[in-house]
């Protein structure tokens, strides 16, 4: 292994990277754009449920009920249909997610002390928002019933929720630490999955083979410029998240960067491995997408919790490096935990990096000879 | 003219499908994505591992716990002995929810003097699951306290809230997400194959050879697009079939209408692919640009989070996204069984957007060739 040859390869690669302004711009813009979208536009909170009210009763009591829904802050009345067909129309066309039907005898029943009933129709196609909306509806219903009772009943149970780590339940805090892992996986695989395939496609690989450079040197040399870009990207993401977006960074930033460096090495080596194995750019890019982006997105616990997955897939997640990186990032950012809790993740991440690096070198060696 | 397009299209088809590994990948890749999304992408919150600290140990507290477990949403996995231990369990991530029933719980219920104390601690790291878990607890507790209150106060003036869930009565998130996955898979594959196929000719240098033939730029575009369009349709059919037959996603609307709308949708996607090819010099750039476009588009489409919850500025942006309209269409066809009479605004918007994108891209492409 000669440092001089590594330096030469790295230098050549660096010039090629630097010349490609478009890719370079995208490598830095994509993380920023994604962070901003996730921070400002993506929210799992449900607080603007479009509601249609079919008030057949039109009494002060029915208006009070509607007011209770809108005042909760979760529901916005958007329409007042006056038939069930119209309700169908609103729900069918997504103009309303919830329809409240208050029957003719609603206030009469309440005043005479009989049971009254209210119908709530809920669009379940988005199961997630529907479940949350269902909870709000139950709460409002309970409040309303208690308030209308002949002698107002105090609540029997005082339910106190306390939320840890992310008390305001900001989806931003939940998503962004994991998002950094996702962005890194993508950037890294997109950047490197083509580097060797490109040399084959253009026929410059033969030139490289005819030089005395060894496979390991070629891999390391090719990795260095992308590692620098990836690391700068990570730093950028962490800084934006912590200082601009206000995601709490409770743990050690050094541990965070150490973990990032290890993760980047593994991801980049994996890109080189794909690139060496396929020799064709379109094929390499599709394979890279399938093996890096998708697992990092779906199998890392980034949004979809691993505990909910079927057992065979849970086993698969152990082979996804992003899984460890996501839990390291979430742990450091939100929980502020250190090596004591994260040692295993760090070790497995390093192991993965080492194995993939060796595989990449060997694959390239076979190809070259 | 058709003759020329035909021969060039044949060449494109041969080039695209020649490689056996790539043929396999084109079939395997959407299937893997579908299966992953089908099995992994559930936002449902069931069997949440829960810690229970019951300081009251009364009949009432046991009844409440029984109801929590019977709901299927919570599984009691540990019984910590103190508040400190709860903190440790949450730190380690062993439980997501901890329920603490205070001493005097049953006494307070019986005396009606003060509300009985019940504390729920939730790990908010996953804000979505936390929200849903809290909503489940609230519903169960609400029902429990209603049942407790009933004998005390005559059921006078009770209001029943009868909730009916439409379209997806079991609230399965799979039914919500899988139709959307069809749109996603077609989007990414078509973008990449279109943009890279055009750039490849330029990178390898065969574009000059094509230019000396009598083929016109627009004919070249049509021929170049045809394999991507075929892949788009093929993957859509494959994914729909597996989604319906394997995952039992209901398809209530008309299949021919779905195909028609996919065609309109592909117009926009191929147009964007072509546009990307005009701004990229290398395949790497084309691939990155495809991805650069794909990511924000998916996020701002209503695929996972509803558009009406986004800030207004972002909501306006979504009007320019073909995915936004197509998602409403697929979900409408799959879950609601609606047709042209309800979905015409979306279909029209998609068509106009497609024509506009395609026209701009084709013009740029022509200029670059000339």
SSE order and pairing:
The complex is a heterodimer of chains A (369) and B (370).
Chain A: H1 3-19, H2 21-40, E1 49-55, H3 60-71, E2 75-79, H4 84-92, E3 98-102, H5 106-111, E4 116-123, H6 127-148, E5 157-164, H7 171-192, H8 195-202, H9 205-210, H10 215-244, H11 253-278, H12 281-298, H13 311-317, H14 321-335, H15 339-368
Parallel strand pairs in A: 1-2, 1-3
Antiparallel strand pairs in A: 3-4
Helix pairs in contact in A: 1-10, 2-7, 2-10, 7-10, 7-11, 7-12, 7-14, 8-11, 10-11, 10-15, 11-12, 11-14, 11-15, 14-15
Chain B: H1 2-17, H2 20-40, E1 48-54, H3 59-70, E2 74-78, H4 83-92, E3 97-101, H5 105-111, E4 116-123, H6 127-152, E5 159-166, H7 173-204, H8 207-212, H9 217-245, H10 255-279, H11 283-299, H12 312-318, H13 322-336, H14 340-369
Parallel strand pairs in B: 1-2, 1-3
Antiparallel strand pairs in B: 3-4
Short description:
Chain A has 369 residues and is α/β, with parallel strands linked by helices.
Can you give a write-up of this model?
The complex is a heterodimer of chains A (369) and B (370). Chain A has 369 residues and is an alpha/beta fold. Chain A has two domains: 3-42 and 169-368, no CATH class; 49-148, abc type-2 transporter like domain (abc type-2 transporter like fold, 3-Layer(aba) Sandwich). Chain A has 15 helices and five strands. Chain A has a four-stranded mixed sheet with strand order 2-1-3-4, sandwiched between helices. In chain A, β1, α3 and β2 form a beta-alpha-beta unit. In chain A, α7 runs antiparallel to α10, α7 (171-192) runs parallel beside α11 and α10 crosses α11 (253-278). The model of chain A has no long low-confidence stretch (mean pLDDT 83). Chain B has 370 residues and is of the alpha/beta class. Chain B has two domains: 2-41 and 172-369, no CATH class; 48-152, 3-Layer(aba) Sandwich (abc type-2 transporter like fold). Chain B is built from 14 helices and five strands. Chain B has helices at 2-17, 20-40, 59-70, 83-92, 105-111, 127-152, 173-204, 207-212, 217-245, 255-279, 283-299, 312-318, 322-336, 340-369, and strands spanning 48-54, 74-78, 97-101, 116-123, 159-166. The chains are: A alpha/beta (369), B alpha/beta (370). Chains A and B meet through α2, α4, β4, α6 and β5 of A and α2, α4, β4, α6 and β5 of B. β5 (157-164) of chain A pairs parallel with β4 of chain B.
């Amino acid at each position: 292994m000669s440092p001089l040859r590594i330096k030469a390869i790295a230098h050549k690669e660096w010039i090629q990277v630097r010349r490609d302004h478009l890719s370079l711009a995208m490598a830095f813009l994509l993380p920023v754009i994604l962070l901003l979208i996730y921070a400002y536009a993506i929210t799992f909170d449900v607080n603007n449920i479009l509601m249609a009210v079919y008030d057949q009763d039109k009494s002060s009591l029915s208006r009070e009920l509607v007011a209770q829904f809108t005042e909760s802050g979760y529901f916005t009345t958007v329409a007042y249909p006056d038939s069930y067909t119209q309700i169908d129309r609103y729900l069918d066309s997504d103009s309303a997610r919830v329809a409240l039907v208050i029957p003719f005898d609603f206030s009469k029943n309440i005043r005479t002390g009989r049971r009254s009933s209210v119908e709530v129709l809920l669009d379940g196609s988005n199961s997630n928002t529907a479940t949350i909306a269902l909870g709000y509806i139950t709460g409002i219903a309970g409040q309303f019933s208690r308030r209308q009772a002949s002698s107002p009943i105090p609540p029997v149970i005082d339910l106190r929720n306390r939320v840890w780590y992310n008390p305001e339940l900001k989806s931003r805090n939940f998503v962004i630490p994991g998002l950094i892992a996702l962005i890194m996986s993508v950037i890294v695989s997109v950047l490197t999955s083509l580097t060797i395939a490109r040399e084959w496609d253009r026929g410059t690989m033969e030139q490289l083979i005819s030089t005395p450079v060894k496979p390991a040197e070629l891999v390391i040399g090719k990795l260095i410029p992308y590692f620098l870009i990836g690391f700068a990207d990570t730093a950028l993401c962490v800084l934006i998240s912590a200082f601009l977006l206000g995601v709490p960074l409770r743990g050690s930033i050094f541990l965070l960067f150490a973990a990032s460096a290890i993760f980047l090495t593994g991801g980049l080596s994996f890109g080189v491995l794909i690139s060496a194995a396929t020799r064709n750019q379109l094929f390499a890019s599709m394979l890279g997408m399938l093996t890096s982006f998708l697992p990092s997105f779906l199998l890392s616990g980034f949004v979809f919790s691993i505990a909910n997955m079927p057992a065979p897939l849970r086993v698969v997640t152990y082979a996804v490096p992003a899984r460890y990186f996501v839990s390291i990032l979430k742990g450091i950012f939100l929980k502020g935990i250190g090596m004591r809790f994260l040692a295993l993740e760090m070790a497995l991440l390093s192991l993965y990096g080492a194995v993939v690096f060796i595989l990449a070198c060997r694959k390239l060696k076979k190809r070259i000879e | 003219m058709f003759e020329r397009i035909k021969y060039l299209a044949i060449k494109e088809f041969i080039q695209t499908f020649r490689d056996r590994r790539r043929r396999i990948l084109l079939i395997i890749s959407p299937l893997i994505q579908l299966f992953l999304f089908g099995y992994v992408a559930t936002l449902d919150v069931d069997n949440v591992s829960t810690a229970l600290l019951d300081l009251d140990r009364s009949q009432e507290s046991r009844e409440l716990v029984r109801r929590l477990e019977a709901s299927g949403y919570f599984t009691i996995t540990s019984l910590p002995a103190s508040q400190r231990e709860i903190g440790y369990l949450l730190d380690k991530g062993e439980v997501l929810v901890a329920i603490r029933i205070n001493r005097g719980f049953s006494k307070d219920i019986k005396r009606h003097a003060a509300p009985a104390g019940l504390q729920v601690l939730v790990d908010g790291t996953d804000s979505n699951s936390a929200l849903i878990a809290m909503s489940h607890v609230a519903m169960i507790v609400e029902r429990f306290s209603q049942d407790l209150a009933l004998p005390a106060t005559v059921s006078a003036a009770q209001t029943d809230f009868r909730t009916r869930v439409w379209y997806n009565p079991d609230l399965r998130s799979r039914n919500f997400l899988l139709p959307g996955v069809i749109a996603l898979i077609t989007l990414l594959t078509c973008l990449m194959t279109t943009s890279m196929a055009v750039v490849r000719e330029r990178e390898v240098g065969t574009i000059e050879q094509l230019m000396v033939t009598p083929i016109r730029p627009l004919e070249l575009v049509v021929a170049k697009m045809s394999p991507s369009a075929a892949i788009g349709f093929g993957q859509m059919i494959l994914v729909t079939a597996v989604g319906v037959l394997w995952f039992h996603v209901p398809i209530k609307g008309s299949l021919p209408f779905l195909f028609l709308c996919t065609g309109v949708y592909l117009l926009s996607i191929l147009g964007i692919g072509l546009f990307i090819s005009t701004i990229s010099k290398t395949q790497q750039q084309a691939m990155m640009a495809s991805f650069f476009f794909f990511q924000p588009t998916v996020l701002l489409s209503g695929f996972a989070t509803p558009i009406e919850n986004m800030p207004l500025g972002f909501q306006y942006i979504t009007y320019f996204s073909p995915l936004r309209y197509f998602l409403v269409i697929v979900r409408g066809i799959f879950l609601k069984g609606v047709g042209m009479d309800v979905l015409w605004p979306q279909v029209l918007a998609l068509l106009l957007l497609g024509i506009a994108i395609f026209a701009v891209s084709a013009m740029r492409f022509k200029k670059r060739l000339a």
